[in-house]
Design goal:
The chain is an alpha/beta fold. Among the domains are: about 170 residues, 2-Layer Sandwich (D-Amino Acid Oxidase, Chain A, domain 2), CATH 3.30.9; about 30 residues. Helices cover about 30% and strands about 25% of the residues. The protein has 12 helices and 18 strands. β17 and β18 form a beta hairpin. α1 crosses α9 and α3 crosses α9. It is globular. The two termini are about 30 Å apart.
Length: about 475
């Protein structure tokens, strides 16, 4: 089959969002309202913040403002890997926060446990499966990387399982897999849209007022002085509140000085049709782990509840000027590449067709994990920059944002991880030049057995290097 033909009839929409279980939209905000806390953004971070705030104080009046539908952006377009890591992997965290990484790893595991508990307690039907994540080597030099990662994981209390070539092939039948490292407890798989919708429903049951199709276009104090409440302005209304949490992900923050820390990078995904029993048996994969490859240009894939395979990643595309919009969500060249890589990964499935093709904007920052901010004399806080690993880390981000806006000093607010910021991106055109040079260099490193060129070495030296 021609690799473009395999997705020729695909629906150009996230498989997760193309679901009759989607809730009815909430009404937009019209007129002035008041609240104790207003949350801007109805993705994971915003919904967790609202739900946790009501859990801390059931009497609090909490409002959520969402520009489209809750869960419609990154929260409904990702692969559904709900990972324990708060730092985009142990290696990235240990490099950037060596004095805190043991604590951050512990907090991350506790956070994942808390998500699992909340899903059960709230009856959220999101297919939560604690399958763990399997990192695979597809090139000989990557096997040593997995051994290094195994040793580092054990140093920090994990107990991963190293699989040599034969052991891995007995798990999952793919000719390109040379070795694997599986941490059975580090990651859960979820239906990401249903997780967002379940959090939305839990918020509503708790008394949170949610307004959708309400784009925020301004934020400022309601008068002079540091004790004046904040006003969040929208097209047809406004909310006056004593506290504000911003959970805007890749969208431009209402706090303009934060925009230099985030760039939107588009990640592309294909979803197969449901596999037959024979097709399923041809690949094995009975433990249903989430899988990620070890190159700089990495792929991720997983099985779904109805026996499809989600296959995404590899291309991460930045558009000049941090552009975003529906016109950027379909990219045939990238889908053809993904289709080709899928057939190479699972040759027995080369005749399988794809039913959905989509993309989403990842809120990328230069430290590749979330950062936090407190502004307007403590009345406004924000969490963003998850760089594609926010399904799990967003709950932690919400906890931090609530602690920051409460004004209290806590275990979380004392962390350097929370108090520090990433290096900002330069303005255009240097921003685009730097990002695309980095992408080219990472692809070249993959082709040269992992050898990093002078540009990547320079980024490593100033703390901007990223090794996926």
């Amino acid at each position: 089959m021609d690799r473009a033909e395999a997705f020729a009839d695909a629906t150009p929409l996230s498989f997760w969002l193309d679901d009759p279980a989607a809730p009815e939209p909430a009404m937009p905000l019209v007129g002035p309202v008041t609240a104790d806390l207003v949350v801007v953004g109805g993705g994971y971070t915003g919904l967790w913040a609202a739900l946790l705030a009501k859990g801390d104080d059931p009497s609090a009046d909490v409002v959520v403002l969402e520009g489209d539908r809750c869960g419609w952006a990154a929260s409904g377009r990702n692969g559904g890997f709900c990972a324990a890591s708060l730092t985009h992997g142990l290696g990235n965290g240990a490099e950037r926060f060596p004095d805190e990484i043991r604590t951050l790893e512990q907090l991350g595991r506790q956070n994942l446990d808390a998500i699992e508990m909340a899903v059960a307690d709230e009856g959220i039907d999101c297919g939560f499966e604690r399958t763990g994540e399997l990192d695979v080597a597809t090139e000989p030099h990557q096997v040593a990387w997995l051994r290094d990662a195994e040793a580092q994981s054990r140093e920090f209390g994990a107990d991963p399982v190293f699989l040599d070539g034969d052991e891995l092939q007995s798990e999952i039948h793919s000719p390109g897999f040379l070795a694997g490292l599986w941490d059975p407890d580090s990651c859960a798989l979820v239906n990401p849209a249903r997780l967002a919708w379940g959090l939305r429903a839990a918020c509503e049951r708790a008394g949170v007022r949610i307004f959708e199709h309400t784009t925020v276009d301004g934020l400022g104090p309601d008068g002079p002085g540091t004790s004046a409440p904040m006003v969040v302005h929208a097209a047809h209304g406004r909310v006056t509140a004593t506290r504000v949490v911003l959970a805007t992900n890749a969208s431009p923050s209402p706090v303009r000085r934060l925009r230099k820390y985030i760039v939107p990078v588009y990640d592309y995904v294909l979803m197969t049709e449901p596999l037959t029993r024979a097709q399923t048996e041809s690949v094995g994969w009975h433990r249903r782990q989430g899988i990620g490859t070890s190159g700089n240009q990495f792929l991720y894939y997983r099985r779904t509840a109805d026996n499809r395979i989600l296959f995404g990643g590899y291309d991460a595309v930045y558009h000049y000027g941090s552009s975003m919009g529906p016109s950027l969500e379909q990219r045939p060249a990238t889908f053809t590449l993904l289709s080709t890589l899928f057939a190479g990964t699972f040759p027995s499935l080369e005749d399988v067709r794809f039913t959905h093709s989509w993309s989403g904007a990842i809120d990328t920052c230069t430290r590749f994990c979330a950062f936090f901010d407190r502004s307007s004399d403590g009345r406004v806080s924000s969490a963003a920059g998850y760089t594609g690993l926010g399904v799990g880390a967003s709950r932690f981000g919400a906890c931090v944002a609530l602690d920051l806006v409460s004004g209290a000093e806590t275990e979380l607010t004392r962390l350097r991880f929370v108090r520090s910021k990433p290096i900002p991106f330069p303005p255009e055109p240097m921003r685009s030049i730097g990002i695309n040079l980095t992408r080219w260099s990472m692809a070249r490193a993959d082709a040269r057995h992992g050898k990093r060129n002078l540009w990547l070495q320079a980024l490593d030296a100033v703390g901007l290097g990223f090794d996926s």
